[in-house]
Amino acid sequence: MILPIVAYGDPVLKKMCVDINKEYPQLDALLANMFDTMYNASGVGLAAPQIGLAIRLFIVDTTPFSDDEDLTSNEQKALNGFKRVFINAKILNEEGSEWAFNEGCLSIPDVREDVFRKPVITVEYLDENFKQHTEVFDGLIARVIQHEYDHIEGVLFTDKLSSLKKRLIKGRLTNISKGKIDVDYRMRFPDQKKKR
Question: Where does Fe cation bind (predicted)?
């Protein structure tokens, strides 16, 4: 089932999310709905707060990035089919020199800005079967994980921009929160009771 994606301005996007356990109700259905919702919106990641749930859960599928002709064949191979569920994730380490990449977010449609992040991360997380993993990720996979991880920490990519950039996009962000934007996927806007 395709769920509405929560738009910029909704308080749930600024909440520190809570851990879940195996008893979380209908987790399999929730994960299936999250993947359906993400694919419907042409996303590569989706965090639970983006569908209104303040829980430490996000999903990633970087396959769409594997078509980028600017990447090496090894990078394309790593991205193709990288599909994961991250439950109760913790980033244990970030290393390397920060690099910029133009990021966007399904909750903030039509706003893209360069965000600086470290290229290598170590993440501890549970998968959909609650099996624990500690893994090192790099490149675009690390970036997508960091972006989604920020969501469960109550942080948006726009929070990482300079004050000048924030001032330049303030009007666009206000319009998004009021639902004054055309998108081709379902959204829930904080300033409107109706869903689109």
Answer: 105, 147, 151
What is the C-alpha separation between 13 and 191, in angstroms, rounded?
14
As given in the structure block, the two tokens for residue 160 are 């990482």
Is residue 148 among the annotated active site residues? yes
In angstroms, the CA 153 to CA 14 distance is: 8
The residue from 124, 135, 148, 153 that is catalytic is 148
Instruction: Look up the CATH superfamily of 5-188.
Output: Peptide deformylase (3.90.45.10)
Q: Give the separation between CA 2 and CA 195, rounded to whole angstroms.
A: 13
pLDDT in tens, 75-86: 889 899 999 999
Q: What is the pLDDT of residues 80-123, one digit of tens each?
A: 999 999 999 999 999 999 999 999 999 999 999 999 999 999 99
Q: How far apart are CA 33 and CA 106, in angstroms?
A: 15
Q: Determine the Cα–Cα distance for residues 48 and 17; give it in Å rounded to an integer.
A: 9
Does pTM top 0.85 for this prediction? yes
